[in-house]
Design a protein that fits this description.
This protein is α/β, with parallel strands linked by helices. Helix content is 25%, strand content 23%. Strands 1, 2, 3, 4, 5, 6, 7 and 8 form an eight-stranded mixed beta sheet that branches. The longest helix has 9 residues.
C-alpha cells in the first residue's frame, strides 16, 4: 500500500494543528487508500514497527471519559488505569461515547484536537521510539510525530498502564 497525494486530515484535526502552531505537520500527513483503523493495518501501510503506532483509546473511569495513548503492540491494563486515576471502575467506552467525547469515530481518533477536553494518560512505552504514528481524524489518515511532543500536545500524564505479558 502506498500513501496517496491527497494528504488531508479531518477538518477538526487540521484546525487543531493550526491552533497548536503545528501547521508544518500537514505536509507530513499520509492518507492511505485502505483503512488504517487498527494498529496492525496502520503499521503495515506505513512500513513501521507495530509499537510505533500510537493508539488513542477512550475509556470510562467511573463514567467519565479518559483518553489513553498506548503503543500499537500493547494492550491497556484497565486495573492500572483505575489505580492511576484513583477510580473505582474503568471500562472501554462505547462507540457513541467515543464520538461524542472526541468528535471522531473509533479507528480515526487522534491524540489531540478533540471536541471536549478529557484527562489523558500516555503509556511510557511510546517514548521508546524517535517517531510514532497516530490517526489524524479518519481511519485512512495518519501523521508522524516525536513521542515527547505528542504527549505534550495531548496534555498527557506519563504512566505505566500497559498490560504485562507473562
Amino acid at each position: 500500500m502506498t500513501a496517496t497525494e491527497d494528504n488531508v486530515a479531518h477538518p477538526r484535526f487540521a484546525e487543531a494543528l493550526t491552533e497548536l502552531g503545528l501547521d508544518e505537520l500537514n505536509a507530513r500527513i499520509r492518507r492511505f487508500p485502505d483503512a488504517t483503523r487498527t494498529a496492525a493495518e496502520a503499521a503495515a501501510a506505513i512500513g513501521c514497527e507495530l509499537s510505533q503506532i500510537c493508539k488513542s483509546l477512550i475509556f470510562a473511569a467511573d463514567g467519565v471519559p479518559v483518553l489513553v495513548l498506548m503503543d500499537g503492540a500493547s494492550r491497556v491494563d484497565v486495573d492500572l488505569v483505575r489505580k492511576e486515576l484513583g477510580a473505582e471502575k474503568v471500562t472501554r467506552a462505547q462507540a457513541a461515547v467515543v464520538r461524542e467525547t472526541t468528535g471522531y469515530a473509533i479507528g480515526g481518533v487522534p491524540p489531540f484536537g478533540h471536541r471536549t477536553r478529557t484527562r489523558v494518560l500516555a503509556d511510557r512505552s511510546l517514548l521508546a521510539h524517535d517517531t510514532v504514528w497516530a490517526a489524524a481524524g479518519t481511519p485512512y489518515v495518519v501523521f508522524p510525530m516525536d513521542p515527547e511532543s505528542l504527549v505534550a500536545h495531548a496534555g498527557a500524564t506519563l504512566a505505566d498502564v500497559r498490560e504485562q505479558t507473562a
